[in-house]
């Protein structure tokens, strides 16, 4: 069966200007505006990345901290603009990084579920339909009207994971970008449940790009792996082979 | 035709998100206080009381219905201060969200403005009570709706501009505090405009003066201001909105990297 590509990246490069630390006050801005000088120190985060992906493909991205994994994912998600080159995606894209964003500690769990759901693009009615399911999955039935700042960190993780995953299921994106989402920090029971749920979702037919340090997960689910090193693709190919190579380089 | 429908849909979704966020923020601001919503009423009321107390010293010849004159100016200016100061930080304070979700940043700025609309409504209710108490004709209060609509557009435009600048200039809020104070003294809120003065000329280009002045003339004094004043007011609001949106749209793609 021939499927259409739904992600293209063509020679994507990205630079960040990291030299502006002293340059952000009003006075400094004014001076640099008048003098026309701007202190610049660029950091090349990504350099000439090209690849494409098809629906159903699960791609792993590995590499050390600061090798450009998150930046790459954010560029594909459209959060960052590519400095050079072009990115094309077909269908809806969803980017997920961790599970601790979007919660307001001073609101109750119920209010938080609605707020997060709406932030993720659902309507109020959609959230209502899923509400019981979300609470049930998180296993926090007794705390619906408790304010979230009273939750333990594990409970917060459960809640945000549950809301995120159910909202995701509802919106059913064509492209899913997962940035270090395994190992959320719940207890073992929940961890297993979460990984299972995530896996079920990953295998659901969307194009998935998975950035992780957990090589076990990468080997288990991905059918292609990219190894990023200092913004370049150092190697790509089958998971077993690339992971082994990567492990050797880290150990060395 | 299809693109227009899409455009309307997008606008609706931004508006819906903004309103939900605004409601949450409004709720959050009241949280943990027994006085809660009452603070919205108490704060302008206390300030009103203070100025009224010393106003007699500053103003040797107060106008008719001076308390109404003062209170309306005060709450409109209050709306201006709270929205703009909030808008300055609306992008930077949501850094985590902006970096991790692809939402329309416009709704972050808009929600910041909308949350103060709620408190403004409460203040208007007090104003209505004052009008009844002082025996003014309160029927004309209906005309505040269209005036406020243009005022809101003006503020939205300004907020978009300030939100953008706030991302690039880290200490803008300090600058803004000083500027706002300057505008506060340049706008006749607690004093009455001295005729044929330099103030009057400056006020002509002060948008806030026009919004407040037009509201006072119509609502309190039942006078219809000249058509050129009304047109100027509309002009200011549309100009502000278009300019603010233009700048915001131009720079918004850089926000995730800057915060």
What report would you give on this structure?
- The complex is a heterodimer of chains A (252) and B (259).
- Chain A has 252 residues and is α/β, with parallel strands linked by helices.
- Chain A starts with 6 loop residues before the first strand and ends with a helix.
- Chain A has helices at residues 26-35, 69-77, 109-119, 124-138, 153-171, 188-202, 215-221, 239-251; strands spanning 7-17, 42-53, 58-62, 84-89, 93-97, 175-179, 207-211, 224-229, 232-237.
- In chain A, helix 3 crosses helix 4 (124-138), helix 4 (124-138) packs across helix 5 (153-171) and helix 5 runs parallel beside helix 6 (188-202).
- Chain A contains eight helices and nine strands.
- Chain A is globular.
- In chain A, 39% of the residues lie in helices and 24% in strands.
- In chain A, strand 8 (224-229) and strand 9 (232-237) form a beta hairpin.
- Chain B is mainly α and 259 residues long.
- Chain B contains eleven helices and no strands.
- Chain B has helices at residues 2-30, 38-58, 66-90, 95-100, 105-133, 144-168, 172-186, 198-204, 207-220, 227-251, 255-258.
- In chain B, helix 3 (66-90) packs parallel to helix 6 (144-168), helix 3 runs antiparallel to helix 7 and helix 6 runs antiparallel to helix 9 (207-220).
- Classes of the chains: A alpha/beta (252), B mainly alpha (259).
- At the A-B interface, strand 5 and helix 3 of A face helix 1, helix 4 and helix 7 of B.
Termini Cα gap of chain B: 37 Å
Instruction: Name the helix and strand elements of chain A from N-terminus to C-terminus, one letter apiece.
Output: EHEEHEEHHHEHEHEEH
Radius of gyration of chain A: 20 Å
Please, how many helices of chain B?
Answer: 11
Helix fraction of chain B?
A: over 70%
Gyration radius of chain B, rounded: 19 Å
Proportion of beta-strand residues of chain A: 15-25%
Largest interchain contact: A-B, 30 and 29 residues
Strand content of the residues of chain B, in percent? Answer: under 5%
Oligomeric state of shown chains = heterodimer
Reading side by side through the largest sheet of chain A, how are the strands ordered?
A: 5-6-7-3-8-9
The percent range for helix content of chain A is 25-40%
Number of DSSP strand runs of chain B: 0
């Amino acid at each position: 069966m021939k499927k259409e590509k739904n992600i293209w990246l063509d020679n994507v490069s990205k630079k960040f200007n990291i030299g502006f630390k002293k340059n952000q006050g009003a006075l400094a801005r004014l001076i640099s505006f008048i003098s026309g000088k701007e202190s610049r120190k660029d950091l090349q985060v990504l350099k000439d990345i090209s690849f494409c992906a098809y629906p159903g493909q699960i791609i792993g991205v590995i590499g050390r901290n600061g090798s450009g994994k998150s930046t790459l994912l954010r560029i594909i998600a459209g959060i960052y603009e590519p400095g050079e080159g072009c990115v094309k995606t077909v269908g809806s894209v969803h980017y997920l990084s961790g599970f601790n964003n979007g919660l307001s500690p001073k609101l109750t769990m119920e209010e938080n579920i609605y707020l997060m759901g709406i932030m993720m693009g659902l309507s109020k009615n959609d959230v209502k339909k899923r509400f019981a399911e979300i609470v049930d999955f998180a296993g926090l039935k007794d705390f619906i009207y408790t304010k979230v700042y009273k939750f333990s960190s594990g409970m917060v993780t459960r809640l945000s994971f549950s809301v995120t995953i159910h909202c995701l299921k509802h919106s059913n994106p064509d492209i899913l970008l997962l940035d270090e989402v395994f190992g959320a920090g719940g207890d073992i029971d929940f961890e297993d449940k979460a990984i299972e749920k995530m896996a079920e979702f990953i295998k659901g037919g969307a194009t998935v790009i998975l950035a992780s340090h957990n090589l076990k997960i990468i080997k288990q689910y991905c059918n292609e792996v990219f190894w990023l090193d200092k913004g370049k693709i150092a190697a790509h190919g089958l998971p077993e082979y690339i992971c082994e190579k990567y492990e050797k380089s880290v150990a060395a | 035709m299809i693109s227009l429908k899409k455009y309307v849909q997008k606008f609706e979704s931004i508006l819906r998100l903004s309103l939900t966020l605004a409601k949450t923020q409004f709720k959050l601001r009241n949280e943990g206080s027994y006085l809660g919503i009452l603070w919205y009423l108490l704060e302008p009321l206390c300030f009103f009381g203070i100025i009224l107390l010393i106003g007699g010293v500053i103003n040797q010849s107060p106008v008719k219905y001076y308390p109404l004159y003062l209170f309306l100016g005060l709450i409109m200016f209050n709306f201006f201060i709270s929205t703009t100061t909030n808008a300055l930080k609306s992008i930077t304070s949501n850094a985590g969200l902006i970096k991790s979700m692809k939402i329309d940043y416009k709704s972050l700025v808009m929600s910041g403005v909308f949350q103060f609309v709620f408190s403004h409504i409460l203040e208007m209710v007090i104003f209505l009570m004052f009008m009844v108490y002082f025996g003014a004709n309160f029927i004309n209060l209906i005309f505040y709706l269209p005036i406020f609509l243009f005022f809101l557009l003006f503020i939205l435009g300004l907020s978009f501009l300030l939100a953008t600048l706030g991302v690039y200039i880290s200490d803008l809020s300090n600058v803004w505090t000083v500027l706002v104070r300057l505008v506060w003294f340049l706008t006749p809120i607690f004093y009455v405009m001295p005729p044929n003065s330099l103030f009057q000329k400056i006020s002509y280009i002060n948008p806030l003066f026009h919004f407040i002045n037009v509201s006072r003339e119509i609502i309190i004094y039942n006078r219809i201001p000249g058509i050129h004043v009304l047109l100027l007011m509309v002009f200011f609001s549309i100009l502000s909105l278009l300019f603010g949106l233009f700048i915001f749209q131009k720079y918004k793609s850089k926000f995730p990297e800057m915060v």
